[in-house]
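Possible regression after last week's pipeline update?

I re-ran a chain I had predicted before the update to compare outputs. Posting the input and the new output here so someone can diff against the archived version. Not blocking, just want to make sure nothing changed silently.
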Amino acid sequence: MYGSYYWQNSSWNIVVHDPFAEGQDFEPPRFDYYKHLAGLFTRYNFNELQPSYPKITTNSRVGTDNLATNGFSLSNGEGLYLMFIPKDSERVNAVLPKPDSGKMKITWFNIFTGEYREQGSRNWSGWMELISPWQYTDSVVIVEEG
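New output (post-update):
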């Protein structure tokens, strides 16, 4: 019966009928965070994204399995990359395939505020250093042909 015990003792705490009622002994949930991420995945169709290949590693800047020095990346396989950059790092060095136009458009997304910061287009290079405008804050860098 361990599964039932674990489930019952874990699940009762997630049913809160009025999370904003005064007198609660917990911080109100941040539904605005959900709104920001829902907006991101409306702008960039989440259903078309998958973990990008080649996989992310930190072993070297060349090779068949290297994409970036850190972060977690999704791609649509057609030149769009979304990389989650954890707060422990404010930058990523990305190795991305060269787009037909030879240009990459860089946009940053702050997951806590919903703010987008466009950094414009730059010429493609085999090794791009991308620096977040929000130092030591979880963020997403969006790289696309442009």
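Follow-up from reviewer: compared with the archived run. Helices lie at 2-11, 31-43. Marking as no regression found.
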